[in-house]
From TrEMBL:
Lineage: superkingdom: Bacteria
Alphabetized CDD domains for the sequence: ABC_DR_subfamily_A
Compartments where found: Cell membrane
Topology class, membrane: Peripheral membrane protein
Ligase listed as a keyword: no
Domain ABC transporter: 8-233
TM helices/strands, residue ranges: none
Protein known as: ABC transporter ATP-binding protein
Keyword annotations: Antibiotic resistance, ATP-binding, Nucleotide-binding, Transport
UniProt entry tagged with the keyword ATP-binding: yes
Gene Ontology molecular function, alphabetical: ATP binding
Lineage: Bacteria, Bacillati, Actinomycetota, Actinomycetes, Micrococcales
């Protein structure tokens, strides 16, 4: 990390649901153009953390800035620089792929061209298909295209390739590498170790709501004295990480 102002700065994030502490004093600094992976078992606090960063969920304590903006106070400004793709897409089922892309492009002053968005996610031949008729993997890819519509400078992706076949998964990896080359800052929540090792500059390791480490993948492997990132995760958390269904 350099002394450059971080693209994302989260300090002392805390969130409780009833008696359960989902996120406990998590802090992250993500440099401009960095790809940060977030690893953890189900229930480790990954999704709650990224929802607080995105301004979709208010922390009980702590603060977040995105490019110097507060996602709670500066909502309109943050929407112009932040793209978010979460696991569950809630889109109007009767609208076609083209209609949804046109709708989202209308939210931004200088959106990516529709054809480019479709090409980035491999849905060129699905323009006229209604959302409800897409497969789960195709709906996932469309959600990613919509997150990219406004040319975001910061992008949050929650389980980028869950439900995608191997060909579509590798296409999405190539898209992320292209965005990284464009200087986009990316936070990637993932269960897929190969994906994390290929795409991420550093990995934030969460366990039971607490941040255990933030290091490059190779450094985590070395710290654990492991053969690979999967083994390092087990060694550092005592838990097996299963890929999401």
């Amino acid at each position: 990390m350099t002394s450059e102002e971080p693209a994302i700065h989260a300090e002392h994030l805390h969130r409780r649901y009833g008696d359960t502490v989902a996120v406990d004093d998590v802090g992250l600094r993500v440099a401009p153009g960095e790809v940060l992976g977030i690893l953890g078992t189900n229930g480790a606090g990954k999704t709650t953390t990224v929802e607080m960063i995105a301004g979709l969920r208010r922390p009980d304590r702590g603060r977040v800035t995105i490019l110097g903006l507060d996602p709670q106070r500066d909502r309109a400004a943050v929407r112009q620089v932040l793209g978010v793709q979460l696991q569950e897409a809630e889109l109007h089922g009767a609208l076609t792929v083209s209609e949804l892309i046109g709708l989202y492009r209308g939210f931004y002053p200088g959106p990516r061209p529709s054809g480019e968005l479709l090409e980035l996610v491999g849905l060129q031949d699905k323009r006229g298909v209604r959302f409800e008729k897409l497969s789960g993997g195709q709906q996932q890819r469309l959600s990613i295209a919509l997150a990219l519509a406004g040319r975001p400078r910061v992008l949050i992706l929650d389980e980028l390739t869950t439900g995608l076949d191997p060909r579509a998964r590798r296409q999405m990896w190539a898209t992320i590498e292209l965005l990284r080359d464009e200087g986009v800052t990316i936070v990637l929540v993932s269960h897929a170790m190969e994906e994390v090792e290929r795409l991420c500059d550093r990995v934030a390791l969460l366990d039971a709501g607490r941040l255990l480490a933030v290091e490059p993948p190779a450094a985590l492997v070395a710290r654990a004295g492991a053969r690979n990132l999967d083994d390092a995760f087990v060694a550092l958390t005592g838990k097996q990480l299963e890929e999401a269904e």
